[in-house]
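Entry 12.
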Amino acid sequence: MQKIGLPVLGGIDFIAVSEIILCQSDDNCTDFYLLGKRKITATKTLKWVVELLKEHNFFRIHDSYFINLNHIIKYKRGGEGGVVEMAEGFEADVSRRRKDDFLKSLTDLRMIHKK
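Predicted 3D structure (tokens):
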């Protein structure tokens, strides 16, 4: 099981990559939403997180959201770019400008099929 170390106030928390549902930008910090409805706030930017996890099955769907594609439950059309429903009841907006790349990524990974 692969783990990463996240700098938090007072030290470093180690978590399994597979437990990360999504990451949300919060100014110069990033909130990690994990299985079991746990949340960890890392003292790093979302850009730093994207670099850390880019080789894993994650996708940046919005300037504020970076999601683990293994935890997608549903994609809902509507609004600007739609909404992704994630495990544990979390939801995240898909930006209009990232929607096409997001859907192409799902197709490339054979998570969806386009005719």
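Annotation: Residues 3-108 form a domain with the OB fold (Dihydrolipoamide Acetyltransferase, E2P) fold (CATH 2.40.50.1020). Helices lie at 46-53, 96-108.
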